[in-house]
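Appendix B.2, paired examples.
Example (i):
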Amino acid sequence: MFKRIWVNSLFALFALVMGAAVSMHSAGAHDNADLAAHPGPNGGMVQMSGDYHIELLLKPDAVNAWLTDHGDVPQSTEGAAARVTIFGSNGARTSLDLQPADKNAFRASAKLDETKGVRVVVDLTMPGESPVQIRFDIPR
């Protein structure tokens, strides 16, 4: 009987430790470094701030962004305001107002000399909410 209690206790301890490890991994996996390591569904870089994830895709002629919540549920951009500032490696700075497009997208036409190796700041204000800022370091 003692052996049976000891084995059950050992199994319970193992299950507790494994559950804690999985929980810690899940919580830690949801940060900007992890998000940036994997392209978003539209091929852009994903970062988060506040209640939102934003996927950013720079092209020489356009800036595209898509907005979701932390569960990857698309969020309406209707009535939202967004501005992107791109800091080039040569010191150039380009600021553009993004316009709501589609159900959860923002877009702006652009003439960008650089789309890789740049830093980008997106200022986002959703209707009735405080502004948030999302930062991107786009690799070369």
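Example (ii):
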Amino acid sequence: MKLILMIYLILSYQDYYSQSITWLGFISPGGAGSSAEGVSADGQFVVGSSSAPGNQYHAFLWSQRSGMTDLGTLGGHTSYGFDLSDNGNVVVGQSFVSLVSSVIRGFRWTASSGMQSLGTLGGGECSAFAVSADGSSIVGSAQTSNSSSPTHACIWHETLGLIDLGAPTNNSWSEGYCISSNNSIVAGIATFSSVFEHAAIWNQGWVDLGTLGGNDSYASGISEDGSVVVGSSRTSDGYIHAFRWTATTGLQDLGVLASGFSSQAFAVSADGNIIIGWAKNEFGQDRAVRWTISNGIEDLNVTYAGILGDAKLILAKDISPDGRYIVGTAYRNGKSEAYLLDTNPSVIVEQDNSVPDFFELYQNYPNPFNSCTKISWQSPVSRWQTIKLFDLLGREIETITDGYYEAGYHSISYTADSNLPSGVYYYKLSAGSFSDVKKMIIIK
């Protein structure tokens, strides 16, 4: 007789994942706040900004393995991380260049070179907002000569440096906020026939994407091939609504939450079908949201209420190419905190008569983790099985599970007690004469 087991599959029966939230913390313990802006393709790396020593904000790179790393500055007191390449090796953002100056420069960061300025187009300032999937191209904006000169969108290449993408007219201005995977299409804003900025794309020239009936709009996300652009526009009644654009449909209003009035879209999956952003709910509260063709707009706080506890996701800023990982800012424990949401759905699969040949306890995922992690194991026999948690000195902390399990593959979600301090812990599987121990790390 076949067993119907709830298991979590990614690549094989040895990898079990399900929906989870990871709180990324702060550069300084007990910091004032942090926010996440970008996520790598595999969800292993996140970029953003966090309060640092001296109550200033610094760009950070967070990894599943190492936690949050302070990327420093270009010499000033503050820096901001905005985006990273698909593999997490290249980070871009902007930083003040001096402790006594307000001049900002875009930067490119790698582990080998550290933070490096991208230079300018002749003016004093430059910003870097996004990097291509392969890390070879960076888009942003820069002053063309002096503080009174118009700002132009620009693209940076390692061998060519900054390239001015110009503007629709001699007296207008532009900014680039995102770039397609083939590095050929840039989306952002530009001024055309009026003083109001419009969402625009650059592909060897600027194209006005229009508005949803109001005066202004801007583009903030682009699909892998550049065929889908998302952003926000003012409507005829003066509210801001998220939009999705294609050359065929033009700007499409993505709407708002029930009884809400405003929304913004920030990023889109590679295929252009999943969009994330922000919206006001019926109480005027900020909520992270997701749009899909099948479900329309949904409040992520409702969809994932079971794993959020008392936290509220107030902003979703980036999504991985496959739509699985979402990062942004939450309100938690009285302050803003960066988060990584793994939306991978648990699936029910039909398993054949075969069962494992031996016991095995798998490494928990994610690890290190902040509040919730998944523990998985396999059992060749049906019997009573127990998993207990111990501290570094071998003292028992709690029993994670204690019950009768059928032969097969099993996975449970473990939420660490809020009173447990950060540190190294061990979890032990016991089943008859078999036992095995794995290490887990809690970071708060």
